[in-house]
């Protein structure tokens, strides 16, 4: 758990750096006269805010699994044994004729 706390601290430090850069750009933006320079500052501030939001989300999710157990391990392969008739009726599974399987099994030595 210590490494997760370290990562969260590192990410919070990065957020602090982004906030300082954003504040500096805001000061420059207020003092800017050129429309092109203002647009460039605004774009850079928006990019920094997006980075900050992404990092904040990483801090919130730090230490939690990305998906729940059910989302991770429940698959169609696990669902099939519980509802084989529904799978067959929906056309997702084709019935194999015994005659097609017999030659494969009868030629194998026991």
Quick recap:
The chain is an all-alpha fold and 110 residues long.
In words, what does this structure look like?
- By secondary structure, the protein is mostly helical.
- The protein has two domains: 2-61; 69-106, no CATH class.
- The chain contains six helices and no strands.
- The chain has helices at 2-31, 35-61, 69-73, 76-79, 84-89, 98-106.
- The longest helix has 30 residues, at 2-31.
- The radius of gyration is 29 Å and the shape is elongated.
- The relative contact order is 0.08.
- The model has no long low-confidence stretch (mean pLDDT 78).
Number of domains: 2
With helices defined by DSSP (H or I, 4 residues minimum), what is the helix count?
6
The class by helix and strand makeup works out as mainly alpha
Q: What sort of overall outline do the alpha carbons produce when their principal axes are compared?
A: elongated
- End-to-end Cα distance, whole Å, is 54 Å
Beta strands, count: 0
Supply Rg. 29 Å
Fraction of residues in β-strands: under 5%
The H-and-E topology, N to C, reads as HHHHHH
What is the mean predicted local confidence, pLDDT? Answer: 78
Binned, the helix content reads over 70%
Major beta sheet summary: none
Weakly predicted, low-confidence segments: none
How do the strands and helices of this protein lay out in sequence?
Layout: H1 2-31, H2 35-61, H3 69-73, H4 76-79, H5 84-89, H6 98-106
Helix pairs in contact: 1-2
Task: Identify the notable features of this structure and list them briefly.
mainly alpha, 6 helices, 2 domains, elongated
């Amino acid at each position: 758990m210590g490494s997760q706390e370290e990562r969260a601290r590192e990410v919070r430090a990065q957020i602090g750096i982004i906030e300082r850069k954003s504040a500096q750009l805001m000061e420059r933006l207020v003092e800017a006269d050129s429309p092109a320079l203002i647009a460039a500052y605004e774009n850079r501030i928006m990019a920094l805010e997006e980075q900050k939001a992404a990092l904040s989300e990483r801090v919130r999710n730090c230490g939690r699994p990305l998906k729940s157990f059910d989302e991770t391990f429940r698959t169609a392969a696990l669902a099939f044994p519980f509802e084989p008739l529904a799978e067959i009726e929906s056309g997702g599974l084709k019935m194999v004729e015994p005659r097609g399987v017999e030659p494969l099994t009868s030629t194998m030595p026991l």
